[in-house]
Amino acid sequence: MDILLYFAAIALILWSQFKVNNAYSHFAKVPTEKKISGYDVARAILDANGLQDVQIQVSQNGLLSDHYDPKTNTVNLSPKVYNDTTVASVAVAAHEVGHAIQYADHYSIIGIRNAILPFAIVSSYAGWIVAVIGILAGIDALLLLGIAMLGVIAAFQLITLPIEFNASSRALQILSEGNYINPDEVADSKAMLSAAAMTYVAAFGATLLQIMRLLLIRGRRR
Fold it and tell me: Residues 90, 179, 166, CA angle at the centre, nearest 5°?
């Protein structure tokens, strides 16, 4: 059963990656009628919300490396999202701007996530190491500690979900009400962002499956 859970976790991650890559590949070929680029829509939305101090930069980390960095107060867009005038570019750019607006609005859940972040970072590096040592050395306390650290990662991923969904909701509302794109393109943008959101859902699900797997291993050893 623990082997099945292991492969189920891998399959879940691969499925989500395939889904978002497939959606991006499709909508990156669908031009918007108004020919507005990712940069243009991001700049327009930021300015409309009084966020002229937020800068927009080109990310050099490759495809779908788009993100908002609260430390530098910058929206970082991958080259295609920054330059292209497609549904994918507009949707992704608006989503990242949604995160900038969340920080400006002091969206409460972000504070909770930031409080957990240092523990999640440590757990992401050490959780599996501690768990594997606990298994190999037969030290139950270490295995439980590793499982607990994976639990911290799961908690962080769970809290991240409403933040991502809210950013997408904000993006779609702004795109629609601001008349940046046509109504049918809003539906396409929603499909693009929904596929992207599945990567976060899948990551959370995969972590839960791995925790269940370790608990089964512990139960069998006992």
Answer: 60
Q: Is residue 40 part of a domain?
A: no
Q: What is the pLDDT of residues 8-21, one digit of tens each?
A: 889 999 999 999 99
Q: How many domains does the chain have?
A: 1
Q: Name the band, by pLDDT with cuts 50, 70 and 90, for residue 183.
A: confident
pLDDT for residue 222 is more than 70: no
Residue 1 above 90 pLDDT? no
Residue 43 falls within a domain, yes or no? no
In the block, which residue shows the tokens 């999202």? 81
Boundaries of domain holding 160:
2-33+86-98+106-221
Beta bridge pairs of residue 57? 76
- Residue 32: closest CA among 175, 167, 197: 175
Strand-strand pairing, 55-58 and 74-77 = parallel
| Catalytic status, residue 96 | yes
Of 96, 164, 177, 185, the active-site residue reads 96
- The answer to whether the beta carbons of residues 214 and 150 sit under 8 Å apart is yes
Q: In whole angstroms, give the CA distance from residue 159 to residue 98.
A: 17
Q: How many CB atoms lie within 10 A of CB 200?
A: 17
Give the span between the Cα atoms of 17 and 180, in whole angstroms: 28
Question: Is 78 among the domain residues?
Answer: no
Q: Is residue 137 part of a domain?
A: yes
